[in-house]
Design goal:
- Helix 4 runs parallel beside helix 5.
- Helices cover 23% and strands 38% of the residues.
- The longest helix has 18 residues.
- The protein starts with a strand and ends with a strand.
- The strands form four sheets. A six-stranded mixed β-sheet has the order 7-8-9-3-10-11, with helices on both faces.
- The protein is of the alpha+beta class and 346 residues long.
- The structure holds adenosine-5'-triphosphate.
- Adenosine-5'-triphosphate binds next to strand 2 and helix 1.
- One of its GO terms (biological process) is quaternary ammonium group transport.
- It is an enzyme of class 3 (hydrolase).
- Pfam families: ABC_tran.
- Belongs to the ABC transporter superfamily.
Amino acid sequence: MSAGFALSLEHVRHSYGDKVAVADVSLAVRAGEIVALLGPSGCGKSTLLRLAAGLERPDAGKVAVGGRIVAGEGAFVPPERRGLSLVFQDYALFPHLDIAANVAFGLKGRPRGEIGAIVADLLGRIGLADRARAYPHMLSGGEQQRVALARALAPNPAVLLMDEPFSNLDQRLREGMRTETVRLLRERGAAAVLVTHDPDDALAAADRMALMRAGRLVQVGTPEEVFRAPADRFAARLFGEVAEVPAVIAGGRAWSALGAFPTPRLADGPGIVCVRRDAVTLADGPEAIGARVLATRFLGERRQLRLQVDGLETPIEVAIDRRLNAEPGGRVSITVDRADAFVFPA
Ligand SMILES: Nc1ncnc2c1ncn2[C@@H]1O[C@H](COP(=O)(O)OP(=O)(O)OP(=O)(O)O)[C@@H](O)[C@H]1O
């Protein structure tokens, strides 16, 4: 499976003492592909990245970079000889080196002229051409982050591993850096694994998302695939709030206060129906359900309603077309779009 991929991990495991951090993960990243690795805190994202980088040794399994085995089968290639670069949350620029020297760090041994040209080109691209002689402490967080990215890209790695690279940036800088990072990666055809806790990073930057839970990947797919068929409640919630409603799964259907939903693959038992907020419309019809409006809020594009649905204890929040209105205290009929409702075992 490693041939033809920029990076591949095959049945990789890693424990710290008796704590299993990565249980059994296989993931292959194509040349030039950006994969976002998402999951709750402690699920093993950083450990997986460290295994790919060579900062940890796998207890079992194989890691290959560009088809060459770098860990497993008796091999272990140290990080600096794997042909990949790392970008971490804390940038880790060298404080005693100026910006140009930081960017040049991975280019040791090349002709001076070539180093100068690469550094000048990258500093220009990140908009810091005039700061080449500044030291890291003289730059803002966002500028330091751009330097860290330039430093990682300078040796032209086939694979860039990024661990929460944007998390120290405010929202506006974050979006700018994300766009810039993707542009630089695409330009160079570099593959990347981006560890993030922010689904927006994944939606904006990634070709595929890999969702991790308790040391395992539970779903790998394009953002649209994950959106259309989330593997679990966490995956369903990645793209925005969902209403979660208890259900009973029986005979291939989940029966809930919001109606019955087909569940051909689930065993009978307690379930949860997750409904995207905009899957609810105000409409009468044979399947319509009655609800009382508890509160409304105009959100610009949508109008948010807090509804007490008949037969349901906990109120739900939905987002309807802003041109429709509903008065608090009034009654409405709602229908749920089946394509935006997902059932999981409770
Ligand atoms: N050096 C270590 N020694 C012992 N346990 C560790 C070590 N590093 C991580 N762990 C544990 O391994 C598990 C996975 O950690 P990891 O840092 O890979 O998760 P993560 O998904 O990156 O989390 P976060 O999003 O919080 O950074 C956690 O339970 C963590 O406490």
